Each structure stands twice: as C-alpha cells, then as structure tokens.
Amino acid sequence: MDEIAKSQTADMRASIGEATRAATAMDAIAVSMAVSVESVKQSVQISKDIANQQKLVGELQSRAYLSVQFERKLNVDSAYPSPT
User: Fold this and answer.
1) How far apart are CA 26 and CA 20, in angstroms?
2) Which CA distances in Å does 7 have to 10, 12, 18, 79?
3) What confidence tens digit (pLDDT) does each residue in 44-60 have?
4) What is the three-class DSSP state of 50?
5) Is 65 helix (H, G, I), strand (E, B) or coil?
6) Which residues pair with 77 in a beta bridge?
7) How much of the chain, in percent, has pLDDT values that exceed 90?
C-alpha cells in the first residue's frame, strides 16, 4: 500500500510539474501576442498616417489650371480712346 501511495505521489508531482510548464508556456505566448498586437496597432497607425498624407498631397496637386486666350488685340494709345 505504501508503494501505491509513493507512486501516486510521484505521478501527482509529475502532473503538477507538467501543469506548471504548460502555464509558463501559455504566459510566454500571451506576452508574445500582446507584443504582436501592439506592433499591429502601430503598423495600422502608420498606414493611416501615410494614407492621410497621400490624400493631402493628392488634394494639393489637384489644383485648377487657368487658360487664357486672346480673341483680339486692343492697342491702347492716347490717340485712340479706350472702348467702354
């Protein structure tokens, strides 16, 4: 009977050791995921900043152009009065 109790105690210690290792591994995974999430947040913010900058550049480059055509030439001289 004593041998069975010792065997169960050893099995329990091994099980607790495995549970501890699994918990430590899960903790490390959680930390890694938190770092990854923060990296993704930063990446998304950088992408938004770039998109906003590109939008601004597009708006600034989309300016109206003015074209002037002269149909006729008027000479303004003191000998000729200006048309009114």
Assistant:
1) 10
2) 5, 9, 16, 126
3) 999 999 999 999 988 88
4) helix
5) coil
6) 80
7) 55
